[in-house]
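pasting for the record
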Amino acid sequence: MTDKLRNIGPKSAAWLRQVGLRSRGDLAAIGAAAAFVKVRRAGFKPSLNLLYSLEGALLDCHWQEVPEARRSELSRVVEDALAALPPPRGRPAAAPVHVTHHEEAAMPAPSLFDDERGTTSEG
């Protein structure tokens, strides 16, 4: 960011520059929630503190002074926006996990240790 914004440290400023947000005007134009989503979509892993910090920067207050109701609203907006996005490219979407149980008598027990003669049962 070319402008020094309240609550925005060097790492957060670098993330914002990476996604094309270089001024307070750029941030104000899309809002805190959309800026947070852009940072996430770029592959960075920000915590919700960045979301609150962005809102605090726009309101010119410390991020902890952002009212709890507004924080909850911002969190919901971000959650809904991220849920509506397609899965990231290059990585398949997580599929349901299926667990298969086998009866112990149906499968031979693996032989991992030496038997009494000092040889493995596989060799």
